[in-house]
Design a protein that fits this description.
The protein is of the alpha/beta class. The chain has two domains: 17-93 and 203-283, 3-Layer(aba) Sandwich (Rossmann fold), CATH 3.40.50.1000; 98-198, Hypothetical Protein, Haloacid Dehalogenase-like Hydrolase, Chain: A, domain 2 (2-Layer Sandwich). It has helices spanning 35-46, 59-68, 98-110, 133-140, 167-181, 204-215, 232-235, 249-252, 266-276, and strands spanning 17-20, 50-53, 75-77, 82-84, 90-93, 114-119, 122-125, 145-146, 157-163, 186-191, 194-198, 222-226, 240-243, 257-258. Strands 8-7-6-9-11-10 form a six-stranded mixed beta sheet, covered by helices on one side. The chain has a five-stranded parallel beta sheet with strand order 2-1-12-13-14. A three-stranded antiparallel beta sheet has the order 3-4-5, with helices on one face.
């Protein structure tokens, strides 16, 4: 489902907080933070602009980014399902209900789609040599826990992921999942090959609202930047939104402005152009 939230008010005043997606936005395709990105985060702090991140990753998989960028504010993991402090202390968590997780797993199994489960701080897989496992290991910086099933963590699942490199199959599974689960889960692609199932309140729009509330910043003075369809929910909440140049046309169409790609330091350049050097666009006008 796509959770419907109230639309954002227009931006008012200079940007006070920037919230960034991680994969496809803050890091390069090979999952690196560039010197320019690190420097941009530093300059945000020097300018008095708050900075934090939101991702589909688990908190543990975000820790290296938190440390390298010296983030001091709360951040959001699991597409907004979990809010945590930089020391990884849990602030709040929304987990998949037992029956929803079971129904989603049954659907993935019936369609021949690999399933991963994130629960109790672990990444659990049935096949540690399976599709995309090496890629995710690189992304997270740690490996999976092999299991025969997921029964022992039912009711405590932070995120369930369907994994396939078959676009047509993923599209059909996504459509079937939305029909099956309706409003009982948030269902979104975090990457073209990942279909994420999280709690209904676990979406990036809710994450932006929660982070702004806890940090004490008006949504109208908040900017967000991302590249995937699951980032559109946060575009709808912030006063100013930036789509990466590597985003799809659908995502770009829903942002205030478009930056360069993550292969070309799009994040760092967006910080300079739209946040630290405010234009008419970042004050609520047209890009």
């Amino acid at each position: 489902m796509t959770t419907v939230l109230e639309p954002r008010p227009k931006a008012r005043g200079a940007i006070a907080l920037l919230i960034a997606d991680v994969d496809g936005t803050l890091v390069t395709p090979d999952k690196r933070l560039t010197p320019a990105a690190i420097d941009a985060a530093r300059r945000l702090g020097e300018a008095g602009v708050g900075f934090t991140i939101v991702s589909s990753r688990p908190p543990r998989g975000m820790a290296p980014i938190i440390q390298q960028l010296d983030i001091v504010l709360p951040f959001a993991a699991f597409n907004g399902g979990t809010l945590a402090t930089p020391s990884l202390e849990l602030v709040e968590a929304h987990r998949l209900p037992h029956d929803v997780a079971r129904a989603a797993l049954a659907l993935l199994t019936a369609r021949g789609v690999d399933a991963w489960v994130y629960a109790d701080g672990d990444w659990r897989v049935r096949d540690p040599a399976g599709l995309r496992v090496p890629h995710e290991r690189l992304t997270l910086g740690y490996g999976p826990t092999p299991v025969t099933d997921f029964e022992d963590v039912m009711g405590r699942i932070d995120k369930l992921v369907g994994v396939s490199d078959d676009p047509a199959l993923m599209a059909s599974v996504e459509a079937a999942a939305r029909q099956l689960l309706d409003t009982r889960a948030t269902i979104n692609r975090s990457q073209t090959y990942y279909l994420d199932f999280t709690h209904p309140k676990a979406n990036k729009g809710e994450a932006v609202r929660s982070l702004c509330r806890r940090i004490g910043v008006d949504l109208r003075r908040t900017a967000v930047i991302g590249d995937m369809i699951n980032d559109v929910a946060m575009f709808a909440q912030a006063g100013f939104s930036i789509a990466m140049g590597n985003a799809t046309a659908e995502v770009k169409a829903q942002a205030t402005v478009v930056a360069e790609t993550n292969e070309n330091d799009g994040f760092a350049k967006a910080v300079d152009r739209f946040v630290l050097r405010p234009t008419a666009a970042s004050m609520g006008g047209q890009a």
